[in-house]
Amino acid sequence: xxxxxxxxxxxxxxxxxxxxxxxxxxxxxxxxxxxxxxxxxxxxxxxxxxxxxxxxxxxxxxxxxxxxxxxxxxxxxxxxxxxxxxxxxxxxxxxxxxxxxxxxxxxxxxxxxxxxxxxxxxxxxxxxxxxxxxxxxxxxxxxxxxxxxxxxxxxxxxxxxxxxxxxxxxxxxxxxxxx
Length: 179
Hints:
Elements: E1 6-9, E2 16-19, H1 27-41, E3 53-55, E4 62-64, H2 74-95, H3 97-110, H4 112-130, H5 135-142, H6 146-154, H7 161-171
């Protein structure tokens, strides 16, 4: 426990204080922030009772108070949360571009096989639909069946080397992989 509690610097006033890993404010600033938060939750100087009716700060629609910090109706609360979350996400991405880049590289390494599968299965369907032919017509043209073409497009099955070459020759492409 001693290695967790250590000297921290208050984000508001800059003073040093003893605190845990998530302690961002000294006890005095924390108390002040708590008072401000409590005052924000009060309307016209009175505490709102749970179950009472209040008005949404965004759309003005009435809602039943279910919590002391509630300020929005159910539909606006979801929108507001999404806006706040997106803003925090963008701020994090701006401050930590190297971490984001590293995470993206790790994701691609973990999912490389699945990503490639998605690419070729989408490519077969894209080529077939742009040529305006059905799965059955493609299957007949390359000497296979409609069910095989369907399985290739769904990604449940990969075309073998012969069929892969036949598909590439039929659509006059070098590869089904996108570059």
